[in-house]
Amino acid sequence: MNQDFEFYNPTQVFFGRSAMENLSGLLSLYGKNVLLAYGGGSIQQNGVYEQVMQVLQACGKKVTEFSGIMPNPTYQKVLEGGAIARSCGADLILAVGGGSVIDCAKAVSIAAVERGDLWTRHWLEKRPVEIPPIPVGTVLTMVGTGSEMDGDAVITNEETKIKTSCWDYCLYPKFSILNPEYTYSVPEYQMVSGIFDTLSHIMEIYFSPEDEDNISDDFAEALMGNIIRSTAAALKDPQDYTARSNLMWASSLALSGLLAPSKKEDWEVHQIQHQLGAYYDCAHGMGLAAISPAYYRLVCPYGVPRFKRFAINVWGLDPTGKSDLDVAMAGIDALAAFIRDSHMTANLRELGIPDDSLLETISSTCNLRQGGYYTLTREDVLQVLRKSF
Ligand code: NZQ
Ligand code: ZN
Fold it and tell me: Has this prediction a pTM greater than 0.90?
């Protein structure tokens, strides 16, 4: 661990079939007014809404609902939630859903206490949050983003067509209830989208310097190996508790900060996907799957030893008789095969992008980061998008 680092993760996690039993004790730590944030109705269909409401009512809470949070939540929706949170005097925001609901709830927690142009202040200029936001707790129903245990709130500004994140320590949820059974009802498309999101979070940290012997990379390989096994098991039987629980915990760990020490972190695949998401309202993880093979094939020659290690340690490939670059590229081929075999989106057409007319706009608006083995030019981004089409 050659680089100095700070590690802090304040989210209290309750995990497992009986995790919900802890909610009433947690609620007793907050005031009477609870803003219940959720999405388009999946929690009413799978019974989670009823379970949560029963606990809230038994605890004597005054509940105000903030529903209809859409996948890829918009800044407009954040402002709507902020106004509701203010008018009901929310003491706690309880987010019940996936990454979109949790991210929106985090953003609302700021919008409820701060006035003015929050978008410019916190999402564009990345200025720290100064007024303590309303506390957020979560009940996770969809696995992948890691939002239940991190400080990010990814929001789309529909007017300016920018999708980006605000990060702050004060945005970590105070607590998260993680019951893998709540994910049984997630449709296969969303399940594998979330799985690739987790895998991408791990890969975007793993495929970056420093490359000295370090615990972060060893953790990353263990998590990737488990995800590959658990994906096959969950596709075969969506109610395989062992697989679903491994996938859930892998997702939370991936962005918990555990894998980051001593790593510069790449995140360029996410930068490209966020701009794809700003123009095309697509499932986040599927967008990542569609562009990752082309991206990694472009970057691989600049980080051959690491990609070779990925091929051998994660995919179990035999390097005998092959050049280092060939082994490294074979690891990316294995990733592409995993994407196809796991019913993930293998290219931008499958993602629902009808033509290549916006690819130049996307490449000219996405952030270019310097954390990986190679810093892309805008022309490189366009090439990745064209190869992914
Ligand atoms: O609208 P609801 O009813 O909640 O339905 C959702 C939605 O339609 C549904 N769903 C969730 N749980 C379900 C379920 N359907 C049936 N049964 C359940 N148990 O699944 C659909 C997708 O949900 P969504 O929350 O949009 O998915 P996800 O968790 O992948 O979140 C994606 C958002 O998170 C951001 C993405 O950019 C995207 O906006 N990210 C957040 C990150 C973070 N905070 O750290 C990091 C990620 O890289 C990512 O950028
Ligand atoms: Zn992601």
Answer: yes
